[in-house]
TrEMBL record:
It comes from Lithohypha guttulata. One of its GO terms (biological process) is RNA processing. This is RNase III domain-containing protein. One of its GO terms (molecular function) is ribonuclease III activity. SMART domains: RIBOc (SM00535). The lineage of its organism: Eukaryota, Fungi, Dikarya, Ascomycota, Pezizomycotina. It comes from the Eukaryota. PROSITE patterns: RNASE_3_2 (PS50142).
Length: 150
């Protein structure tokens, strides 16, 4: 796996580790690095990708809900069960995503809940961009990260 010039990362996580956790091979390594780099210290970090990822989590949730014929309230409930900062950060810790996030050193070894949730969204956003906007790949990574259940 060829690396482009890699920025200094405090936790020096390997590209292979990120790909192992997500189950996705990134073609653009810089995009993957952006996804795991939290905002801070004068940088927007992964905020742009997190915005894309948030929209995708909503899209996948609604895409699963709509054919069920259930009420809009049920559709909203489906999203809240998987797409909140609380749930995303919990799942991120369980799946080892907290260990791959490059974050502000002032937080010590602990990744704050909102930073972890945003990073989960950013990873989803990065897969979308890297895969040429493949919802199939996004859905697979969401399943691999246990955001979605099979």
């Amino acid at each position: 796996m060829g690396n482009k010039s890699k920025k200094a990362e405090p936790n020096m996580v390997s590209d292979a580790t990120v790909e192992e956790i997500t189950g996705y091979h990134f073609h653009d390594i810089d995009l993957m690095h952006e996804a795991i780099t939290a905002a801070g210290m004068g940088s927007d970090g992964n905020k742009r990708l997190a915005l894309v990822g948030d929209a995708l989590i909503r899209l996948v949730t609604v895409d699963d809900w709509y054919p069920s014929g259930k009420s809009p309230a049920d559709g909203q409930k489906s999203f809240t069960e998987i797409g909140t900062n609380e749930v995303l950060s919990l799942v991120g810790r369980e799946q080892g995503v907290a260990d791959i996030i490059v974050h502000n050193p002032c937080h010590g070894r602990s990744v704050p809940k909102t930073t972890l949730a945003s990073s989960m969204e950013a990873i989803i956003g990065a897969v979308w961009v890297d895969s040429g906007k493949s919802l199939v790949d996004v859905r697979r990574v969401m399943q691999n990260l246990h955001i979605l259940q099979d």
